[in-house]
Amino acid sequence: MRLSLLFGLPLAVLATPTQASTCTPTWVAGWASSQFLPTGDAALPAGTLANRTLRQIVRPSVSGDRLRVRISNLAGTRPLVLAGASIARARGAASAAIDPGTLIALRFDGKPDVIVPAGADYLSDPVPLPTGALDSIAVSIHYAGDPEQTSHPGSRATSWHLPGDHLADDAMAGADHFDHWFNLAALEVERCAPAKLIVALGDSITDGKCSTTNGNDRWTDRLAERLQADPKRRAIAILNQGIGGNRLLDDGLGPNALARLDRDVLAQPGVTHLILLEGINDLGTLTRDAPVSVAAHQAHVARIIGAYRQIITRAHARGVKVIGATITPFVGNAYYHADARNEADRQAVNDWIRTPGHFDAVIDFDRVTRDPAHPDRLLPAYDDGDALHPSPKGYRAMGEAIPLSLFD
C-alpha cells in the first residue's frame, strides 16, 4: 500500500533529503525576443500563417533541466487561438529538422490547445527537456485560423511553415520560410542552481542588423559565448531585447524604450543586470528631414538624458543594476546624414553616460568601434557599409570588449 501511494506522487516529492536540501529550482529567461505589431515590409501578407504550423529556432543562453515557452498576443485585438505546440532539439540553427527522440508536445493548463487573450502573454506548462547553453531549440506552433500578427521582424534566424499540423514532423520538407519570429516571446529555463540574467535593451545595433542570418554573431551572442566559456560565469544568462529602429523617446519600429521597459526587461524572470544601448535613432531622426535650432538640439539631448534617468530609477527600484553603453559613431550615414551638430549631441550624451554616478557601470562601445583617425565615424574594418551598423567583425569586437567582471 505504501509503495502504491508513492508511485502516484510527482518525482519532485520523491527526492531524497540530500537532493531537497541542495536543489532550489528557479526559473530564468534563457532566450527572448521583443514582440510588437509589424508594419510595412515587416508584416506578412494576410493569410500567410492561416491554419499552418510555424517552426522557429532559438538558442537559450544558459543550461537547465526543464523548459517552458512564452507565447505572445501583444499586438492582437482579438484572442489568438493555437491548436497545439511542440518543442524539440533542432538539428542546427539553419534547418527545420529536429531530433525526433527529443520531441515533446507542449501543454497549456494540461491541454494541447490554448486561447491567448488580446494583448496578453501565456506560458506553457513546463516540460522535462534538459538543455545546454547555446543549444538550438525548435518551437513549433499550429495556428487555428488566421492569426493577427505579433512579431519580432529582425530575427536574423529562419523560420519554416507548412499548411496543416506538422508539430511532430521531424523534417518539414518543402516548407516555406522567412526570417522573422512570430508570437514567440521567450524560452524560460528551470535550473537546479541560482542564475543571473542580463537584458540588453537596444535598437538595431543590439538586434543585430547586418549580422549573419542563422550565424548567431550579434554582440550579445559573443557575450553569451564568453560567459559560457568561463566556468565561474556559466550561470549568467543574457537576453537580446533589441528592436531595429527603436528609440528612447518616440515610437518607431516597435514602442519606445520607456514604454517597453517593464515588459521587456523588468518582468523577465531572474533579471539582475540591464545593458542599455539606445539613443542613436533619437539623435539621427532629430534632423533627418530638416535642420533645427541650437536650442532644439540642446532640448533633445536633455530629453535623452532624462529618459536614461527614468530607466535607471525604475530599474534600481527592482534591484537591477544598469550598465550604460556609449553611442557609436554614425557620421557618413546616408539616412541620417549627421553633421557636426549631431556629432556634438552624441558627444554630449556620451559624456553624460561616462560621468561616474549616473550608471552603475559603463561599456564604451564608442571607443571600441570608432576610427581613431576620424572619431566621428566607424572604423572601416567594423563598418558593414552604411556608416551606422557594425559588421559581424565589429559586433565581435563589441562582445569581446565587455568586462565579464561587471556581472559578478
TrEMBL record:
The lineage of its organism: Bacteria, Pseudomonadati, Pseudomonadota, Alphaproteobacteria, Sphingomonadales. It comes from the Bacteria. Residues 200-397 form the SGNH hydrolase-type esterase domain. Keywords: Hydrolase, Signal. Residues 1-20 form the signal peptide. The keyword Signal applies. This is SGNH/GDSL hydrolase family protein. One of its GO terms (molecular function) is hydrolase activity, acting on ester bonds. It comes from Sphingobium psychrophilum. Coiled coil: none annotated.
